[in-house]
């Protein structure tokens, strides 16, 4: 039995966590959500989490946050796969092609930090990273994402602005429209689409990937 891995991509608030939470009820697949707890367990002496500090002051905490994110993503990818299909929320590809590029474009990171990131990203991905069998991009408009973010009301996300969501959206589009190292499937998820409809489309894609020889 050949084991397959699919990365679920998309903007903050596009519906990834809800989708993957529902998929996790399927005993035939494995689901790895972004390790938010690991990012929130690291705190300042005043008790502010690293994730919250990053959203509040990305220029100060951007490089530090991306370093921790990279480590935790590689850690859960390294967990032995038991089921035939594994879904993962984002990957180190996202960090490089979306979040790091966004921070560079928005001048949130210093030149020397960019160079350091490039060097260890290149080395670690060459040594450790496994390319997924497919990427499923959950596409929602930045405005829809902001509405969902406000509705779920996570404390760490109170400082997220629409301009940041627009930049993240644009970087996803630029990256995935030109990506050719594995198949990319786009699943539209506007504000009025039922989650069960999205779930069914994603499951069909997953079955298609499993059936590929």
From TrEMBL:
Q: Which InterPro entries match?
A: DCK/DGK, Deoxyribonucleoside_kinase, DNK_dom, P-loop_NTPase
Single GO molecular function: deoxynucleoside kinase activity
SUPFAM superfamilies named among the record's database cross-references: P-loop containing nucleoside triphosphate hydrolases
Q: Name the Gene3D superfamilies for this protein.
A: P-loop containing nucleotide triphosphate hydrolases (3.40.50.300)
| Family annotation (Pfam families) | dNK
Q: Coiled-coil region(s) at which residues?
A: none
Q: Which residues form the Deoxynucleoside kinase domain?
A: 6-203
- Per the record, GO CC terms? mitochondrion
User: Under which name does UniProt file this protein?
Assistant: Deoxynucleoside kinase domain-containing protein
- Which organism does this sequence originate in? viral metagenome
Give the taxonomic lineage as stored in the record: unclassified sequences, metagenomes, organismal metagenomes
